[in-house]
Amino acid sequence: MRGVNAALGAAGLAAFLALGEAVPRLGLVKDDYFPPTSRIADALGDELGDGAFWSALGDTLTGWALGLVIAACAGIVVGVVISVVPYLREATASTIEFLRPIPSVALIPLAVLLYGTELRSVLLLVVYASFWQVLIQTLYGVQDLDPVADETARSYGLGTWARIRHVLWPTALPYVMTGVRLAAAVALILAVTAELVIGAPGLGARIAVAQTSQAVPDMYALVVVTGLLGLLINVGARSVERRALAWHQSVRGEVMV
Amino acid sequence: MRRRLFLGLTALPVLAAATGCGSSDDGDASDAGSSSGGTTTVKVGIIPIVDVAPLYLGQKKGFFSERGLKLELTPAQGGAAIVPGVVSGQFQFGFSNVTSLMVAQSNNVPIKAVVNGIASTGVKGKDFNGLMVKKGSSITSPKQLEGKKVAINTLKNINETVVRQSVRAAGGDPDKVQLVELAFDQMPAALDKGQIDAACVVEPATATIRSQGGVEIASPLVEIAPDLTVALYFTSQQYEQQNPDVVKKFREATAQSLAYADSHPDEARAIITTYTKIPPDVLKQVTLPKWPAEANRASIEALMKLGEEDGLFKKTPDLDALLP
Fold this sequence. Notes:
The complex is a heterodimer. Chain A is mainly alpha-helical. Helices cover 80% and strands 0% of the residues of chain A. The interface between A and B is medium-sized, with 27 and 41 residues.
């Protein structure tokens, strides 16, 4: 079954690439603005041979990874604390609902003002965007706690910390992992956006330079790279999720009796 | 190039407030411009376009190092990052167009121009900037742009002034022209597809449109004033007062670089390939700007008068305070 899926996936991709080659060649769109696949592949090859490309890739990944780690840690800690401390959830709910929908890109002027084109401006946007993904999922996860299990733990005399560790955390983890997986994708989008708009070093800034230079195939090649990066990150996040939740029913499936 | 300026403009009021309350970046400001072994490192916020080639060239030629300056050229996406960056001390110097600087100045943003950036070539039909229509367009004069869609990179900035003046000079009513905001790099495609009727472009988009048979109906910069100063390098008033020596060295080295680039266009063209991705065949067609060492004050006054007429400034910019 897996083999068939993989073959279908490859066939779909091949058809897409062939379409990308044919459409401009047939003159349906101008190849000046939409170069055929082969020319983009050429440009991609040139990019891969350029040291500056790799350092840009490194910059983007640094912004992404740092931002994601900060957002995930902060989201989990804040989420658990808010849920566990009585009344804190009610006290913060309206503030969270107010802050959460603010698009991260709206913070660009602020980021520029505070940190200019440095990594810190990228981090500000990345952390802001991905923090909410993790926080909200953590809150839902904790809410899902089975009261009977919690009461049982209490009656066995487990302290707050032990209950968080043994009852609350296993319940919340699947939600948290979903939050982290979503945050990983959002973090990449925001990292590239920040570079593209602000000019912080990275793939986004390189796309912007290609764009202003009228180097169209180069621009598409770099866009393809960011797409591949997103794909890899998603696959990676899924496999981490599977490993972390290997014990969980959703991953393990029903136990045969 | 200065297409992200609108972000910078949104940031301006906040910026004025922030600087009024005393910048929190004093620490950065004092360690930036730090000297070690007689060399001072200065960060320059630039836009990675043709215009700033002299800095790269001057750096390569050692014009800065022989004065004890080390340049750290930091590409930013436009005035959005550069003006606030200079004022808050992240950059010691920055590159921006004259109108943006005048707008900032009229908003009491504490900046000071240091040395010339670029100027129009002053030759009609052979400038880096042009008002262009697509191949086969029936429009032959800016007067015919009444009721038509004209793309400029940033509304309420230098290109709005120059397009309106072109229409006015040709006997048309600029208020009847529909100006739309579009990034320079998207203009050739938009023009080609007929989404816009004309575009006010700069290199390398000018070369791209020419290669597609586009026609220039006006050279707006040439019409405003002879040898119009288009952009300048600037610093913050605070940095200028605290480091007059560095500012003086930067001015001298940049002036030397500008003169050198102006007289060695081939070397300027060659250095452009190191920091942009302009394809070689396009670069050959690109018209370089003029790089005079001195800003042309009369031309800036002309630009200011037109800008005032079009309501770009809150109050009349103080050129004595702004210009070097």
